[in-house]
Amino acid sequence: MRLGLEQIAVSLETGVCPPFWDVWITSSLSTRETGTVHGDSQCDTETGTVHGDSQCDTETGTVHGDSPCDTEIGTAHGDSQCDTETGTLHGDSQCDTETGTVHGDSQCDTETGTVHGDSQCDTETGNVHNRSKCGQTKD
């Protein structure tokens, strides 16, 4: 399922996910800075690693689903969202927001935090399609 740009903007501003993110609960807003995790899960708030069917909302990122998220570099694995200071992920993908590298079915604009499309990454320096590094034109 793809996020619309409007939904992403609202999510980034309010911390409230659209209705189809059924695991998300309202109380997560009040636990954003404490790294509280709801569900059958473990969360190391130092590294942001999350295991199990869970959500983890720390100061630097949100994780939903059965996935780990390193909130220092913004790398996400599995069916998850990872919202760090520099980017948002949705879908089965990885995005290192330090280097802008994106893998999988996703788009990550590390400047605006928007995600959509099939492996496109738009940074200050240009569009990259498929499994490539942001900021470099694919040959």
Say how many strands there are. 11
What structural class is derived from the secondary structure elements? mainly beta
The largest sheet is: 4 strands, antiparallel
Q: State the share of residues found in helices, binned by percent.
A: under 10%
Tally of individual domains? 1
Alpha carbon gap, first and last residue: 29 Å
Radius of gyration: 14 Å
What spatial form do the alpha-carbon principal axes imply?
globular
Unreliable runs? 1-5, 7-11, 15-45, 48-97, 99-110, 112-139
Order of helices and strands: HEEEEEEEEEEE
Q: Treating each run of at least 4 consecutive H or I residues as one helix, how many helices?
A: 1
Physical arrangement of strands within the biggest beta sheet: 6-7-8-11
What is the residue-averaged pLDDT? 42
Task: Report the β-strand fraction as a percent range.
Answer: 35-45%
Descriptive key words:
single chain, 139 residues, 11 strands, 7% helix, disordered C terminus
Task: Tell me briefly what this model is.
This protein is mostly beta strands.
Report on this model:
Residues 120-139 have a biased composition (Polar residues). Residues 35-139 are annotated as: Disordered. The chain is mainly beta and 139 residues long. The chain is 7% helix and 39% strand. The protein contains 1 helix and 11 strands, in the order αβββββββββββ. The chain has one helix at 5-14, and strands spanning 37-44, 49-57, 62-66, 69-70, 75-76, 79-83, 88-96, 101-104, 120-123, 126-129, 132-133. The strands form 4 sheets. Strands 6-7-8-11 form a 4-stranded antiparallel sheet, with no helix packed on it. It starts with a helix and ends in a 6-residue tail after the last strand.
